[in-house]
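TEACHING EXERCISE
Course module: macromolecular assemblies
Task: Read the component lines below, then compare them to the predicted structure of the full complex.
Student: A.B.
Group: 4
Components provided:
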Amino acid sequence: MQKIFYPDSIVVIGVSEKAENLGRNIAENIIRFEYKGKLYLIGRVKGNLDNIPILDSFDDLPEGIDLAVILTPAATTPAYLDQCGKKGIKYVIIETAGFSEFSEEGHRIEEKLGELAKQYGMRIVGPNCIGIVNTASGISTLFVREEKSEIAPGRTSFLSQSGGVVLTVADMLTAAGLGVGKEVSVGNKLDLKESDYLDYFLKDPETDVCLMYLESIVEGRALVNLANRAEKPIIILKSNTGQASHHVAQSHTAALANDDAIVSAAFRQFGITRARSFRELVLFAKGFAMPPVRGKKLCVFTRSGGHAIISADAATEFGFELDPFPPELMETARPFFRADIIDSTNPLDLGTVFDFNSYPILIEECLRTVKPNAIMLIFNYRRETIPLARQIAEQLKEMSWKYQTPIGLCYLTEMDELAYLERNLGYPVFLEVYDTIQTLAVSRDYFLWQQRTKAAQAAPPPKPAVPPDACQKAEKILQSRKSRQPLLPDALAIFEAYGIPVAPWVTAKSAEQAVKLADKVGYPLVVKAVGAEIVHKSDLGGVALNVRDADELQARIQAMQERIQAQVPGAEFQFLLQKMVPGGREVILGGKRDGSFGPVMLFGLGGIYVEVFKDVALRLAPLSEDEATGMIEEIQGAKLLHGVRGEPAVDLAGIKDTLLKLSQMMVDLREIYEVDLNPLLATPSGVTAVDARIIL
Amino acid sequence: MQKIFYPDSIVVIGVSEKAENLGRNIAENIIRFEYKGKLYLIGRVKGNLDNIPILDSFDDLPEGIDLAVILTPAATTPAYLDQCGKKGIKYVIIETAGFSEFSEEGHRIEEKLGELAKQYGMRIVGPNCIGIVNTASGISTLFVREEKSEIAPGRTSFLSQSGGVVLTVADMLTAAGLGVGKEVSVGNKLDLKESDYLDYFLKDPETDVCLMYLESIVEGRALVNLANRAEKPIIILKSNTGQASHHVAQSHTAALANDDAIVSAAFRQFGITRARSFRELVLFAKGFAMPPVRGKKLCVFTRSGGHAIISADAATEFGFELDPFPPELMETARPFFRADIIDSTNPLDLGTVFDFNSYPILIEECLRTVKPNAIMLIFNYRRETIPLARQIAEQLKEMSWKYQTPIGLCYLTEMDELAYLERNLGYPVFLEVYDTIQTLAVSRDYFLWQQRTKAAQAAPPPKPAVPPDACQKAEKILQSRKSRQPLLPDALAIFEAYGIPVAPWVTAKSAEQAVKLADKVGYPLVVKAVGAEIVHKSDLGGVALNVRDADELQARIQAMQERIQAQVPGAEFQFLLQKMVPGGREVILGGKRDGSFGPVMLFGLGGIYVEVFKDVALRLAPLSEDEATGMIEEIQGAKLLHGVRGEPAVDLAGIKDTLLKLSQMMVDLREIYEVDLNPLLATPSGVTAVDARIIL
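Instructor-supplied answer key:
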């Protein structure tokens, strides 16, 4: 991909001298961005642009051009691509729209482009995209006119499923002082996909932070795998989350909606920061342009009690700790205060300190002695203080890097000065107390995730959670049946193979056999009718609870038999006898194979807690022990499992163990689409599965 | 208060020629703000400032000065205030700090100031404040140096519990193009309180929107009463919500923390918009600088599919409806599109429309024919389009007022141009898609609240919910007892007096009497021991459930008697027999007298739903019927009451009725501190209270 972003030569195809020609915009953007390589132009009519000839034939082009950019009517693109192939051009950006996002005919043309790319071994960006920008190599292939000064160079790169969004984010990154490294709009992804670009950005030595705008995530698993190995933060604005946007998204980039709860869970699990808006996308990127926040210890300096309180509220909301300042620091501070008594509260109110030069002194002393994980200065000043405030910002920037501790500069003054500082300081400036702390928290959470992930990767591989022959046994059971949905006995047997505790059970073909076998499970017991045609056993009267002895068993099975045969004449079925398990908390454990993210695990409390309160935790499988624990603790109802009103806690280790085994099952048995234990009964002394479902 | 904001003459006390003198800043700010009235200066040393003499004695001052501003050491302020009183000055701003927020001594000085104010009939702003600003009369009494150009005039007024915050919000209002009408920092509120200033702002013909920053709400009821009568929107940033801020807040303005859930509920109920940050405070104010959003119908125009999707997501999140555009509008649009086929989806993607002059044409056509409640234009453009984009903004601004429909201008381009537009257009400009729609939603919610409130005020008063003699009867029961906490029989009798259905009950002094009376309630029944010394009856074994006949009743009462006497020797108690009520959903209804907001009602599902899930609804009493219904529907668990899995709904009208009666009880019986029905059992056929508690 290096040749796309750092080509030695480019040909733009579809250029004319006309002012409204979009190909001309591309060519002129490349010139304005001071591209140093060779630039060739092709158009239908010969001409001249900024002293570069517009050629009307590929014959006049040299061999060995690195990159072609095509913006011609859709119908003409295959012919141009073919010519590129013949000229040995290996990388082509097709910006034209009107392909599969637009019509059947367009879809056919796009397929033709795909065939040509394969034939010549060409890699394609787009089609239906706005192109790429690389401020380092001086390239902008955008088809809207841009000035070089509109987009500041920087070390943040951006990958987008929408062209328009590229422009918006570039403006915002420039205004935020972060600038732009590389940008690409992926368009219809005929060839190169998000993960290809992300992989490149993650390896690119000129990129520190990767931002993405996505409308759909087709290969979620590939994305999180990249994130898991990445040494750089990734921030994603994922749209297309509501009903209203689905139709628009489909006609825009043929994007299908993802399950948004899975997207959020996967991002959290793999250290991807999710932004809800452009503002957050750029705001959070500012957090990564400072040294990392290595923990929860925050020190806040402010000139006003009001700002102190607001920052303390935000610190609480975002999980920071505000320890009071130690006496030594207060000694350093004392001479600068007008008041006699100063309060060592954190946030420290500098309202009676009128010599602003003391700010860097106090902050450096704090860095040296308190060693917080982050500092925040809320500096509220008027116009007359502008020169000094700028100078202090420079000092604190140096100090931040020297002590490897972020200093959140929340500057509050007139907008034009703030805009100047943001764009020019070379270090993040924040315009709002709340935003500053939220951003520090994002940086902290990413750092802590990285630490945990590295520790987990360095740790010895965990003991296998399941018996060594689990997978084999389960495969055998699955293969021995022809049904799409294994019956309950098979499902229970598969769970048992994986070492998951299941309430004792047997199957019987008749009431007589049931009576003989009942002692193997013991009374009281439950009888369930099982058979391929018994779809909703409860509705058919195919469940008998609390059967206390052999006589009752005999009678109730006979009644059941008659009921079912009356409703489903000729149905084949047998009886599953299962030990009644004395009460406990009902929990649900589930697994599902998501089209984009692969196996996903679910945990929640039973029944209405899932249905009405939507109180569930999700994680991608395979789960680590920490993640399994995390799922249990994450739900709101976790307190019930720990025991409320003096009740003892249920067997949390047992639930965790079962989650890990179920996760292993989802990884091993790829034919399983969905699985659930609903409910698993959890008591203080253990867990027991009583009902289970597997869908292939 | 008019004389504070529009004084004909001002004297500033505490001025010297020295550059670092803060009183000098006040005087010079007044001069720089081009105050048209007479300005006098008093200092310890005679001098001259900008050709105005600094007097060292009140003797040289004329009589009848409207306003004094004092900034001298705390200890000297009583003497100066006394002199003001003697000179007949009726309004005084005391900016000095170091009073009750600082020390015992300061507290005493502040009390002295209060006495003097009373003695002379003076009204006081502060002390410990930054003063006032009125851009209309050309006054800034701020003690930090300000330039007139730093703060643009406008029609948004701001009242703050913190001086520093005044400066921050003024900067942000100016940058947002809203400007500032009046500002005041209330300081320690020795005399004038938030509600005094708010009342004035609400009546002020030069103020359209009131913003407030509050750290504590001492008279919550007065605040919401003002809001309820107001014809102007009120937006409040309420801080001091977390543990970490409480200490800081106390040393800052002696502010005590409110119950934040009550604050939020009260704001929602009375149409006050709550902002979480400075950014939101100013953002939401922009929503009120456009015509109101009268409903949910939104039309979005955008140049990019990505922005279309993001706006559709936000529209869904904030409850807007995006109906497709009608064929007539699409006919108007067709000639502007480059593509043949255009999609009538809303958001409408103008990506292939290159003549931006069509935007106002299309939008006016939309206003004329579709008549949406709000329009949003997302305009993403480069530098070359700046002149045209400005011109379009002007056109749309006119159109918005002409059609009395807000047009959310979400302009996306370089920051300096956006900053220029925001400050100068004279109509809100938004810099982010999400923010635009969130702001339109705030404006809509306020408009709809206003409509509902006006309708309710115009409607005939509702029938009294409770029997006419309820209050009298209840008072009688309360007066006949001496206990701080009425026993269960009294509590039940009070609920019955209010017409709340209570499970049939009697009291008995002995087992024998109980057996005789039991038929009045019927078996099976519950026995509860009641007595002043029986605090936790369950712990003492003072509850017997499911008593089925007279023999069992006799036996269990005797056992109960022995158990209790063994544990609480000599305790006096009797037995309450209560009919066992067959199951149903448990709900909790409660009322509490909040120190700031007065009676507050609570509704939730029983037990763990309140304890673990915190799933409760709060409203201030008295409740209207709509509010009672709103409480029931607001909780997450409402679905359970409506019936899940085919169950019938419980008696929702009965719950509502009980809420209204309980609300009336809280209003009538002012000696009640807290009351709850926990649980009230709700079945499809009715509701029944089985346990109740009243705390006086």
